[in-house]
Amino acid sequence: MTYRPKSSTQGGARKRRVNMVTAIALVIAGVLIIRLGWVQVVWGPELSLNASEQRTRVYVDPARRGTIVDREGNQMAYTMQARSLTVSPNIMREELKTGTDLALRLAAEETDPENVASYVTIEEGNAYVFASEEQRETILSDKVEERIQSIADRIPEIIKSHDQDVTGISSDEILDKLNADSQYEVLVRNVDPDVASEITDEMPSVAADHQDIRQYPNGAIGENIIGRISMDGEGQFGFEASNDSLLAGNNGRSTQDMSILGQAIPGTLRDQIPAIDGASVELTVDLDLQTYVQQALEQAKANSGAENASAVVLDAKTAEVLAMANTDTINPNEDTGKQIEQGKSFDNPSVTHPFEPGSVAKVITAAGVIQEGLTTPDEVLQVPGSIEMAGVSVGDAWDHGVVPYTTAGIFGKSSNVGTLMLAQRLGEDKFADYLERFGVGQSTGIELPSESQGLLPAREQWSGGTFANLPIGQGMSITTLQMAGIYQALANDGERIEPRIIKSVTDSDGTVLEQPEPDKIQVVSAEAARTTVDMFRSVTQVDPTGVQQGTAPDASIEGYQISGKTGTAQKVDPNTGAYSNSQYWITFAGIAPADDPRFVVAIMLDEPERGVHGGGGQTAAPLFKDIATWLLNRDNIPLSAATEPIILQAQ
Predict the structure, then answer these.
(1) CA-CA-CA-CA torsion for 100, 101, 107, 112, nearest 10 degrees?
(2) pLDDT at position 512 over 70
(3) Where are the alpha helices (H) located in 261-389, listed in sequence order?
(4) What positions does the domain Penicillin-binding protein transpeptidase occupy (predicted)?
């Protein structure tokens, strides 16, 4: 064979091919290196975080919510232990599948091969397995489904057997959760711990997580104050909502590593932070009084045909709320949806729903003119049947000519004309100042949610008719709590105190937390306040002749001096935008006893058709008498000293 050397052309081509392959390899390597760097630098932290999250689980140790009690220590809301039945559907199915597979294999080993030859064959020795993977999977799936269905059926059955309420617990809903493609599902909440233990013993795939149940032992009594928590354990209404952070405490937490199947790895528990339970709160409310007032209100509503009613009882000297009641309060222990359809609610109208007070607000004018030295209780004024103010004619509720009423008589008889005559002595600016001093148009600061400020026109927005309405309680709105606060100021020697509903707070380690002092304002002097309170005894004065009788003799209590004021305010007709002649708010606020004030009671009835006891008239005075009498008797308040009758009308 003759050797022929390769041409330079062939050698160059091969070299170029080698170089090209090398270049391509380098490019690919470079791309891979860049890609790897990109993944490590840009995606690395995120991927690392995701991987960490997938292999760790953070456990939350719920803090125990604080207890709420009344001023005597009676429980109004507390937490008891319960369990939530939970499951990891994905893990459960794998466990059931593995367990079923093993059970079938063991069963096959112990069975005569001839009897199971249709679906198993001998693989090795005496170990029997399924004939095919497809057949094996089908049988396993069917067995797992049967087991899941039995769990869904069995859970409600066990709960019901222990006389626990199974309302809202459906086998179908449990089955849906068991079949979910997820790592965590809550099957049933609020299960008794012993019942939960029985279920988990029978069904190892089901876990019992700690869960607290909020209990409201008094049903609807005080529920307008207390409110309730949501299914997630957060304050939803009332005191539970406005003081959620105080009651809730701080949850604890810990971290643990998990296996690829989502199971906890022993010995990896770390970062443990203990839970701090919520504080316990003692309210100023008197549960016995709250019960009486709430039941009396419901009866008054039924008797009078009123749309609704509310009442507030304050300690005259401290402004502590002793009772705050409304009609149509929901019972949280019963079907709330059905109750809402019936018109009941979690609202607290005593602080959220303002109304025009009517003549009950005349006490502001009275206190102002007494404080300014513009009149005395026994001054006689010639009061005509009507008065013109800035082109607005205002009359009394009854026809009369000129009558010689004393200042005490003007308020005892509830004369609009006489009140406006005295208000004119004050003047608009002074009167506006007293409205502010008494807290009209301002929130009280009570520790409850959604408090209304009421409505008071700004001084610069007053028109000619404004001053003809405000002194007689029209053209402004207040809440029942604000109404009680006005009278509390006078009952407390002229010092208005911010009303409180929290008496004390104790944290989880037993330390009593210091509470901020309520705001105080001296509205009028102690002398002016006492004179005004004494003068308003004329309202409840009884006189068989009627001449010296006030508008609320039904509020009088034998043996006690009672001071107070009735109110009747026209509601605005939504169809006409004008005041209605048939729809009214009926109010009464009073002080008992007047000579040594202990209690202030404020009442509002919305559109009553009859008296609170079912008789004639539209007055809240008898309801005041019922509540005040109950209090005076319960607390053994000494009788008042005898007094001379007040002159309402000069002879």
Answers:
(1) 140
(2) yes
(3) 287-304, 336-341, 349-352, 362-371
(4) 310-628
- Mean pLDDT of the 586-603 span: 98
Query: What pLDDT, in 10s, does the model give residues 347-366?
Result: 999 999 999 999 999 999 99
Q: Where are the beta strands (DSSP E) in 246-342?
A: 252-257, 270-273, 280-283, 308-315, 321-326
User: What is the spatial distance between Cα 195 and Cα 200, in angstroms, rounded to a whole number?
Assistant: 9
Neighbours of 100 (CB within 10 A): 18
Average pLDDT across the chain, whole number: 88
* Sign, Cα dihedral of 614, 620, 625, 631: positive
Look-up: residue for tokens 């009613």? 309
Q: Which of 501, 480, 497, 479 is nearest to 488 (CA)?
A: 497
Half-sphere CA count of 594, side-chain side, radius 13 A: 29
Q: Sort 200 into a burial class: Cβ within 10 Å, 0-12 / 13-18 / 19+.
A: middle
- Nearest C-alpha neighbor of 300 from the set 640, 629, 639, 619: 619
Smallest Cα–Cα separation from 368: which of 416, 409, 436, 426?
426
Q: Which two tokens stand for residue 288?
A: 């016995």
Strand-pair partners of 569? 585
Active site residue 525: no
Contacts of residue 104, defined as CB under 8 A and 6 or more positions apart, other chains included, come to 130, 139, 140, 143
- What does the pLDDT average to over 47-58? 60
Domains of the chain: 287-634 (3.40.710.10)
Q: Which residues pair with 61 in a beta bridge?
A: 252
pTM of the shown model: 0.81
User: Could you tell me if residue 452 is left (phi over 0), alpha (psi between -120 and 50 degrees) or otherwise beta?
Assistant: beta
Q: Which among 145, 146, 119 is positioned nearest to 132, based on CA atoms?
A: 119
User: Residue 60: which pLDDT band, with cuts at 50, 70 and 90?
Assistant: confident
Marked catalytic residue, from 205, 310, 350, 359: 359
| 8 A C-beta contact, residue 550 and residue 541 | yes
Distance, CA of 57 to CA of 256 (rounded, Å):
5
* Residue 329 β-bridge partners: 345
Residue with tokens 């404020």: 602
CA–CA separation, 548 vs 555, rounded Å?
Answer: 15
**161/369: higher pLDDT:** 369
Report d(CA 485, CA 585) in Å as an integer: 18
Number of Cα atoms under 13 Å in the Cβ half of residue 312: 32
Q: Determine which helix (DSSP H) or strand (DSSP E) holds 380, and give its type and residue range.
A: strand 380-383
Picking from 551, 558, 434, 537, the residue whose alpha carbon sits closest to that of residue 491 is: 537
How many angstroms separate the Cα of 263 from the Cα of each of 57, 94, 211, 268? 10, 12, 21, 12
Phi, psi dihedrals of residue 365, rounded to the nearest 5°: -60, -45
Half-sphere exposure (Cβ direction) of 299: Cα atoms closer than 13 Å: 11
What is the C-alpha to C-alpha distance for residues 174 and 159, in angstroms, rounded to an integer? 13
Pure H helices in 465-576: 466-469, 480-491, 526-535
In angstroms, the CA 120 to CA 113 distance is 8
